[in-house]
Specification:
Chain lengths: ~300, ~190
């Protein structure tokens, strides 16, 4: 097993971002577990910092670009040319900073003076979803599936930052994206089409304008329920938290990370994927669908040979 | 057209926002696709189209007090649907920078407070401590028990750790320095 894994392994730098070591541990845990299973050797960037998120983007262009540039400089000093970012906001911000500096020499100069350095090499920035979908590939994922998610009705929710604006993220489609649909289909899930794939959840207004976020998330969760979904599947921890906390007063529709579903299909236990850390527990739904227990290890030895 | 006339001082404002944001607002057709797509537009938050109209008409004070750019979550929906590819969140940043530089009182104090506390946390420790920022916000807005029940539940399930609240930030000198230098340069860039 071990040798087989090494032979195919891809090394990539990993930028988890603040939420994944704060309120979104389930996303971090499941991302790391799934990358391990998919033979992606994640190397966390040493001393990475916050990208400034929406507060820096809103208030101070130089600071915002500089915080991203600081992390790009760290990434440029690592052996891998690829940088994987699970958080769509961090992904878009770092990518955008790279583009903005390439287009605007004056900005580039101010930023480099602010961070006191420039990258040793430019890195290729990927969202984790994009990397798994495009680089690892659906066939390779499919080959490793040992527990197809048959009978699980899911609605894929992409949110904004991963796909919008397309000019910046260059990923999938801003209105009708399909990559997450395709991935979930490859896992054997029953993927339901709907119109809310990229409707905004209200993002960073969760605390300061809670009523706006409740209005936006309310519509999304209502539609998902009307579609009789067993779960909403997301690629963003901000969407996850908003839909779970602000979608309904007493919500009961699980909101899961795509990495958790990959993990389940690859035979990992719900617990190891952080399924027990959710505010809306997916455990009753998972048990009802036959995913409550860990699959015995012995049965998956031959898979992926 | 109105936007091409007006006194030089009125035009100076729109020119400056266009330059800072890199968005050619003179191209705007006032079609309203942006506001129609904007998740935060409402009866009281009138949305990007009207904000652009204010900018082009040289209504500086009104534009710098417009809640739209405070609410803007940079979702990017408008940028994708706009027939002339105007990206509104770049305009939001330009207005926010100008409002701050000119000491305009934030028209949305709660959003402003959250953003300030968030960045304070990053400045202190290099990374944001979400829980601390949330607690600080709830206390400052005199709503200390907001989201207490879900918060406790998450803690019990091990999704968040009480350590996040208690532990002091480990300073990241490189990041603190970036903040300092960006502060020093304020006014330098964007002028
Ligand atoms: S969509 Fe574009 S052209 Fe139409 S009103 Fe908005 S900014 Fe102007
Ligand atoms: S980027 Fe801002 S202005 Fe544009 S649609 Fe989103 S919230 Fe509205």
């Amino acid at each position: 097993m071990e040798n087989n894994r090494e032979k195919h392994s891809i090394t990539a730098s990993y930028y988890p971002g603040c939420s994944l070591e704060g309120t979104a541990r389930a996303y971090d845990l499941s991302s790391r577990a799934v990358c391990w299973e998919l033979s992606i050797d994640l190397q966390e960037l040493p001393k990475w910092s916050c990208c400034g998120s929406s507060p820096a983007l809103k208030t101070d262009k130089l600071l915002s670009t500089a915080l991203s540039a600081h992390n790009l400089n760290i990434a440029g000093a690592q052996p891998s040319d690829d940088l994987l970012i699970p958080c769509p906001f961090c992904f878009r911000r770092l990518l955008s900073a790279q583009q903005e500096m390439a287009e605007d020499p004056e900005l580039k100069r101010s930023v480099e003076e602010t961070v006191e350095g420039s990258p040793e090499k430019p890195v290729n920035i990927h969202s984790l979803l994009g990397f798994i979908h495009d680089r690892v590939g659906l066939d390779a994922v499919k080959e490793k599936v040992v527990r197809p998610l048959a009978g699980m009705r899911v609605v894929p929710y992409y949110g904004c930052y991963l796909v919008k604006p397309h000019k910046t993220t260059q990923y999938d489609h801003p209105e009708q994206p399909v990559s997450l649909d395709e991935l979930l289909t490859a896992l054997g899930a029953d993927v339901v089409d709907w119109d809310f794939k990229t409707e905004c959840c209200g993002a960073g207004l969760a605390l300061s304008k809670t009523d706006t976020v409740e209005r936006l998330c309310g519509r999304i969760v209502k539609e998902a329920k009307w579609k009789r979904a067993d779960a909403i599947v997301v690629a963003c921890q901000l969407c996850q938290a908003n839909l779970e906390m602000r979608g309904e007063k007493k919500g009961n529709l699980p909101v899961l990370y795509f990495t958790q579903l990959i993990g389940l299909a690859l035979g990992l236990s719900p617990e190891s994927l952080g399924m027990k850390k959710h505010l809306i527990s997916p455990m009753p739904m998972l048990k009802a669908k036959g995913f409550g227990e860990k699959r015995p290890k012995a049965s998956r030895v031959e898979v992926g040979e | 057209m109105l936007r091409l006339t007006g006194s030089p001082t009125e035009r100076a404002f729109s020119q400056e926002i266009i330059r800072m944001s890199g968005q050619d607002l003179l191209e705007c057709l006032q079609c309203g696709k942006c506001t129609g797509s904007c998740p935060i537009a409402s009866k009281t938050v009138t949305g990007p189209r009207r904000l652009i109209a204010k900018i082009l008409a040289g209504m500086k004070e009104e534009a710098l007090k417009d809640p739209t750019w405070w609410y803007c979550v940079s979702c990017g929906t408008c940028a994708g649907r706009c027939p002339v590819e105007i990206n509104m969140y770049e305009v939001s940043t330009a207005l926010c920078e100008m409002a701050e530089a000119q000491g305009v009182k934030p028209s949305e104090p709660h959003i402003h407070l959250f953003e300030t506390l968030f960045l304070d946390s990053v400045k202190k420790g290099g990374r944001v401590r979400e829980l601390k920022a949330v607690m600080a916000f709830n206390i400052r807005t005199m709503n200390p028990f907001k989201d207490m029940v879900p918060g406790m539940k998450l803690m019990l399930r091990g999704a968040v750790s009480p350590k996040d609240l208690m532990e002091k930030e480990k300073p990241d000198p490189a990041v603190a320095r970036i903040f300092e230098r960006a502060e020093e340069r304020k006014g330098g860039h964007g002028k």
